[in-house]
Amino acid sequence: MKRCIELARLGAGSVAPNPMVGCVIVYQGKIIGEGFHQKYGEAHAEVNAIDAVTRSGLLKESTLYVSLEPCAHHGLTPPCSDLIVEKQIPRVVIGTTDPFSEVAGKGIEKLRKAGIDVEVGFLENECRELNKRFFTFHEKKRPYVVLKWAQTLDGFIDIDRNRENFGEPTWITGDLALRLVHQIRSEEGAILVGTNTAEKDNPSLTLRHWAGENPVRALIDRNLRLSSALNLFDGFSKTLVFNAKKNDLTNNTEWIKIDFEQEITPQILTNLYHRKILSLIVEGGKQLLEGFIRQNLWDEAHVFTGNKFFYGGISAPKIPAHVNHCGELLDNDRLTVFINRRQSTIL
Questions:
Q1: Over the stretch 85-143, which tens digit does the pLDDT of each residue have?
Q2: Does the annotation mark 69 as catalytic?
Q3: What b-and-e string marks burial along 298-316, b requiring 16 or more CB atoms within 10 Å of the CB?
Q4: Out of 46, 69, 188, 300, which one is annotated catalytic?
Q5: 264-274 vs 286-294: helix axis angle to the nearest 10?
Q6: Angle in degrees, CA 281, 266, 125, rounded to 5
Q7: How far is 305 from 152, CA to CA, in rounded Å?
Q8: How far apart are the first and last CA of the chain?
Q9: SS3 letters for 223-259?
């Protein structure tokens, strides 16, 4: 099962909104085939593992290990549970059940009805952790939310800026941290900033320092006051503009009207959920970040601390005391990752 998890991780950034899945086939204590879900819309892990077995006759005497319950429905590919039954694999060991309503125990039921010995729950927490975005999406009906900001040693995220200082971020951390931020972006489905961040920093919110697909860009602009000359309106990648004025679509930019008299955070998350976006990284300013924290609608916070002092300015958001955290050094900077255990999908 550990090998299944290792294999599954190779699909990171390429399979969403599907989960990452790894599969290993064992005959008399030796691995004879393995595979993982490589790309959304293409063959699942079980298919790739079965295809990797050179002596197919051995399948009738083998055990198939898979990190997530085999699917039982026709989606973009046929049901994996049907293939396992067809190949007469006598034993299947599953890391965890699939929370997707079209599966959710149906794959296990189909295998058992075919007389296959099925065991479930091996390294279950590790398998759920692997697909925490997928489980959060299906169990909580919202994307997995990652908050991100950089702060100084004295706890500030920005200086007090006037319009002459607009147009570029106030850099706090170095090149290694920047590359890691872009790696994190590559693993999430969407990225969100507020009006002030868009205006002050003029970000592109794309991947320039890491390989991968750009996340969907999301922006809050209540009164549509932002300049169309900003990088976010360059049409380079899909951009959603949450506002109070209109619904519209022009090229790669979509304006979405929401009710600003109500809390906007749940509305944004619901909209992204219906778009099948599994995860969201929030890179906004203090007000936007604290909105997610106040409503407890976040799962992780990645806080980069640079080797600088501002001695004043905009103070960093405060993380509640109940969360777990770990840290690592990045040259002269430090990354601390906070985990919101009150929202955790781990059993």
A1: 999 999 999 999 988 777 778 899 999 999 999 999 999 999 999 999 999 999 999 99
A2: no
A3: bbbbbbbbbebebeebbeb
A4: 46
A5: 80
A6: 60
A7: 6
A8: 18
A9: CCCCCCCCHHHCCCCCEEEEECCCCEEECCEEEEECC
